[in-house]
UniProtKB/TrEMBL annotation:
Protein's name according to its UniProt entry: Dihydrofolate reductase
Recorded GO MF terms: 5-amino-6-(5-phosphoribosylamino)uracil reductase activity
Lineage: Bacteria, Bacillati, Actinomycetota, Actinomycetes, Kitasatosporales
One annotated GO biological process: riboflavin biosynthetic process
Organism from which the protein derives: Streptomyces prasinopilosus
SUPFAM superfamilies in the record: Dihydrofolate reductase-like (SSF53597)
Bacterial bifunctional deaminase-reductase C-terminal domain residues: 3-179
Top-level division of the source organism's lineage: Bacteria
Pfam families: RibD_C
InterPro entries, per the entry: DHFR-like_dom_sf (IPR024072), RibDG_C (IPR002734), Riboflavin_Biosynth_HTPR (IPR050765)
Length: 187
């Protein structure tokens, strides 16, 4: 069975985006880009909700060609563009950059993908990850917590039907002040 990890940048008060989908507070450092690039290298397949897919696909396909791109951003952009992705949406008609679109039941498809042979999977996007959390499909949580309070917006965690017990497996603070924490789901 494949491992499913949910990880994103978030504010100290638990939001992945401030009101109005503002993510300007989360501009990552080279160290954070390198961390996420290493995560991508270890991932076989990434699952996206529509909103996060549209955010990522608006920049990363050509992120390595930007004149001010750092080496870490160039590496991240190339890995992102080349890796396999699945987007879950009922409102868009097509995707590209090694991506497959799923318009049906997300939980059923994620369950099917987890049961397949293959390497680890990541999931991104609060709504999609929330459905996977409620279904008990997430094996690991990776939080890159920025030292900023945004006061509202899109929460990293959504409402759950029951508790999810976790085990802390890593804590690390980057020079930029971001704290990385990894938790495994206790089953």
């Amino acid at each position: 069975m494949r491992k499913l990890t949910y990880g994103m940048n978030l504010s100290l008060d638990g939001y992945i985006a401030a009101p109005g989908d503002d993510i300007g507070w989360s501009v990552p450092s080279d160290e954070l880009f390198q961390f996420w690039s290493d995560q991508l290298r270890a991932t076989d397949l990434t699952l996206y909700g529509r909103k996060l897919w549209q955010t990522m696909s608006s920049h990363w396909p050509t992120g390595d060609q930007q004149p001010d791109a750092t080496p870490a951003e160039i590496e991240f952009a190339r890995r992102w563009r080349d890796m396999s992705k699945v987007v879950f949406s009922s409102t868009i008609d097509e995707v590209d950059w090694n991506t497959r679109l799923v318009t049906g039941d997300a939980v059923a498809e994620i369950t099917r993908l987890k049961a397949e042979d293959g390497g680890p999977m990541d999931i991104g996007g609060a709504t999609l990850a929330g459905a996977a959390m409620r279904a008990g499909l997430i094996d690991e949580y990776v939080l890159a917590t920025a030292p900023v309070l945004v006061g509202g917006g899109t929460p990293f965690f959504t409402a759950l039907d029951s508790w999810v017990n976790l085990k802390l497996v890593q804590t690390r603070t980057l020079p930029c002040g971001v704290t990385l924490t990894r938790y495994e789901t206790r089953r």
